[in-house]
């Protein structure tokens, strides 16, 4: 029987730990960590994410500020606000929810955020520092996956880890972290849409991390007996039986893959809930003056 890696429960536990830490800070005369989020426009997914981030701040005992703009805001206006937040001593960290409207350059915006307040860990300074093992803000999804592996006692040192996907926010940082001695200490292979022998590569994996955004892509024939499978996929697929009209689908065909695994994350309730929780952990660190 496999272990179901419960991201929802782990995230709840970590948020309770953060809250405890915050109450200690407050008791010793420090102020609560303060996260600001900038939301541009009315994208349904982004509205939900930002709403959940505000709720998570409340659960952790943080102060939060939501700054909203219509999608006709100019890039210059947005950059002006970022500059203001960079210099606001009351704000420990802030995020600009992505995606942004097409007329705004996301890279310009990301690079405008002060690295010391970049709790998303998207600024090239944080990405670069992470790659060479220096203290930094690590982006939330890879940090959440590392944390799940650690908290479930899944051995990674010397193991073979295969990552499906090479995105800037998951695949690439995940590979960096899994290879580093101080984090995963694994032997890492990154596969993507052009990889030859992708199935064979996956079958070698002790730890398989799927982050390609293709529902049900990982089937039982791609998984080694006793592997740990981490499913990062969260594709919205239409589902008329749901009030929302959709359900979340992972990259892994759970029903057939799970029986072969030592441990596996479900979708939903696996990696997803850990992501916001790690943003909270980064905000706590920012509030404590470290990064
Ligand atoms: N859009 C989707 N995921 C994220 C995230 O982690 N941070 C931000 N800022 N935008 C996102």
Short note summarizing the structure:
The protein is built from ten helices and eleven strands. It is α/β, with parallel strands linked by helices and 291 residues long. Guanine (GUN) binds at residues 95-98, 120, 140.
Rg estimate, integer Å: 19 Å
Number of strands: 11
Characterize the quaternary organization of these chains.
single chain
The biggest beta sheet, please? 6 strands, parallel
Mean pLDDT: 97
Give the helix proportion (percent range): 25-40%
Q: Overall 3D geometry?
A: globular
The distinct bound ligands, ions and cofactors come out as: guanine
The main sheet orders its strands as 1-11-8-7-5-6
Q: What is the helix tally?
A: 10
Q: Helix-strand pattern, N to C?
A: EHEHEHEHHHEHEHEEEEHEH
End-to-end Cα distance: 40 Å
SS-based class? alpha/beta
Beta-strand percentage range? 15-25%
Low-confidence residue ranges = none
Give the helix/strand layout.
Blueprint lengths: L2 E2 L2 H21 L6 E7 L3 H17 L2 E7 L5 H12 L6 E4 L9 H7 L11 H8 L8 H12 L8 E5 L6 H9 L7 E5 L6 H6 L3 E4 L17 E4 L3 E4 L7 E4 L4 H4 L5 E2 L6 H17 L4
Parallel strand pairs: 1-11, 2-3, 2-4, 5-6, 5-7, 7-8, 8-11
Antiparallel strand pairs: 9-10
The structure holds guanine.
